[in-house]
Amino acid sequence: MTLDGEKLGSSVESEVWELLDADDAVADETVYLVAAALQGDEELADQLGGDLPSPTRPDTQSPAASAPLRAFLRSITVSGFRGIGPRATLELNPYRGITVISGRNGCGKSSFAEALEYALTGESYRFANRAKHWRDSWRNLHSGNPTAIEVDFAMEPDDDRSGSKVAIGADWAAGADLSECRRWSQIHGQKREPVSALGWDQALLTHRPLMSYDELGGLLEDGPSNLYDALNRLLGLDQIADADSRLKGAEKQLGIPRKTANDSRTQLIRTLEESEDPRAAEVKKLIARKPYDLDAVTATTLGTATDQAVAIARLRAIADLDVIDPAKATEVAAELRSAIDAHADGADAVTKAMTARATLLREALHLHAELGGGPCPVCEMGTLDGEWKSSAEQRLKEADAKSAEYQKMTQRLARARAAADGFFAGVATVPAVDGVDLESLSAFNDAVTEARSVPGNLADLPSHVESSAAALAEAVSVLRAEAATLAADLEDAWAPIARVIAAWVDLEAAARIGDNKLAEVQVALKWLRANAETLRGRRLAPVVDQAREIWGRMRHESNVDLGGISLEGSANRRKAVVEGSVDGVPAGALSVMSQGELHALALALFIPRATTPDSPFRFLVLDDPIQAMDPAKIDGFLDVLVELSKTRQVIVFSHDDRLPAAIRARSIPAQLLDVTREEGSVVVVKQNDSPAQRYIADATAVILDDSLDDMVKRKAAPGLFRMAVEAAAHQRFFTDSARAGAVYHESDALWEEAKTTQQRVALAVTGSATGDLSGWKRYRTHRFPTMAICASGAHNGAALDRTALQDLRETVRDIAENR
Prior knowledge:
Layout: H1 5-8, H2 12-22, H3 28-39, H4 41-49, E1 70-79, E2 88-91, E3 97-102, H5 109-121, H6 125-128, H7 132-135, E4 147-156, E5 165-172, E6 182-187, H8 201-206, E7 210-211, H9 213-221, H10 224-234, H11 238-273, H12 278-286, H13 294-302, H14 306-319, H15 326-346, H16 349-371, E8 374-375, E9 383-384, H17 386-421, H18 441-451, H19 461-490, H20 495-554, E10 560-568, E11 575-582, E12 585-588, H21 589-592, H22 595-610, E13 619-623, H23 631-644, E14 649-654, H24 658-665, E15 671-678, E16 682-687, H25 691-703, H26 710-739, H27 744-753, H28 757-766, H29 774-779, H30 783-792, H31 802-817
Parallel strand pairs: 3-14, 3-15, 7-13, 13-14
Antiparallel strand pairs: 1-2, 1-4, 4-5, 5-6, 8-9, 10-11, 11-12, 15-16
């Protein structure tokens, strides 16, 4: 039960290019902007700036990258975390199939699920959605140290690469907070690395393989935007959302100059209406309708006073001039002095000698490592023996430490000097203003020139920075005051209006530069949003089909029928709409469902997301999914689990025995485990009625039923004997194979090739379907008669009685427990 790989496996970018190619009306500029927006922020910025050639479509002909390693869960080991005190391990069958872990509330079973979630993701849905006092109780009260999680995986590639053993974990120091854990991953035979090194980060978002009871409810109860985001990630449309966001951001950025110019024009009109100058009326006519003649506006505004207006504008700019902060200069100078002093103190002859000595010692140690002990090649008197080696290593360690300290001081001095050298780099001289005599300008420019003249002596540099900053501050203060005074003297009644007009002209000219790009971006954004709907529909269809299929299996006795699912809107207006009907009457599905139905629907939506072919996780973990389900829903849920177990390792945590009971009743092969919590948070995991034991129980019920005819018993019982023995052999073979690191599909092929009970037992016991079992059968007396019944049934006088049943139990135990 997985999604069609062809429908979700193709590149979103490739599909967008297909839609662009199919649209005859789309302009080249739109194609390039959409393609660049899909690729990233830098690509879009470069495309808008014209710095790159046109984007190229993705190469669909190049060989596909290697498929990611697919992981089965092998075990979860926990200590000191949540309900688990001393170290406890949950051993799992690391291959396709169903595993159910049962236990009463508070027994610690969910702690295993939460530990897996935290080790994989570094967070927990429950932790994130509970009050602070609940999150603070994550460490076990009885045995909170050590606190650690380790998860082992059986890795199965889908090509010829051999399987790899991989572990991830999380460790906390004593007293550490929940967020202060050290998460790690390790491939067998390699060093530990961050969990992100496995390349699963994106898959954990897109194909999250974990779902708790709280999260089941939250998927639908946290709001339609939460479901929208989950489905959007599954469909790969987050790339479209990112492109939409980039184009929207570009539209906003490009629109700023236009909005600023329009707002300035509105204010300018008010200013012109207040003036009696005839030039104001003329300018008002010129800006009454588009396109505005900016040259005519400028000519009318400035007239013969052009030079004066320019001079005033220059003076105003000088009056607003800002230079170096003396306080910052003091800080830079102080750091340089301190660095100089520290460096001088550390740069004595002893340090230099130790550096040279360290080099000599290191070379001598290398010689000792290569040639072993012997006379010193320098003095030819001492001996390079073990005692000398230990002493030399200690001296080398001390020399290296001093050398490292000296290097730090040197680096600090280099940084401080660079800061001082470049302190005045951003300060420039101010050119003269035509027609205006600024007396203080020369003094300011001289101060700038002096400040940027770095002294040759490093010791003089701190004082130079401080004195130059102070001189600059004084000079600029005088210059600003003089410029402001001269500007005020030069302005007349028209000058303020002329300045407002000139400012608007500049803004309008700047806005026109970006108008074309803004229009292109708006067209590209409109095209992308329109075609995103096409992509959503195309990619959502298989998800909806599978969700409806799963809901059809789980809706037993429900009057609610699931209809379509759609993703509507974007950004803060996004939502997922789930349609349905009640007894044929259309209604919003979410509004008419019971709690159990909502959970069943959440599973129907979660499973397609978690089981796509692209997911590297071959396991699915569901924590208490049946809590709110009635018996009919549980039976339908079991149907879904059976289908999923054909391609996935399905692990279900359950607080009661309803699901295991349903599995036993239908004789479905599954690993059933039971979790109990003893005094002091000691958590114990044990088998909860293995498949082999169920077949033994069935055989016992048949043989000891006095109401059944003997012929019926002889027909039915041998088949149950065979199934019990083969179930034990299956458990033994796959468990041993997984522990040995065998690739699952190879083990599965070997198992399927073994057609008879004899061959399958040989495979489990000897490792080969053709292995010789004669010695094994003779070793204990109960084995031969049991295998005979499995092979030929009850004939030639073989009795189907309590002795045969006891022989069966012992034989099954021998196989399963490797006795």
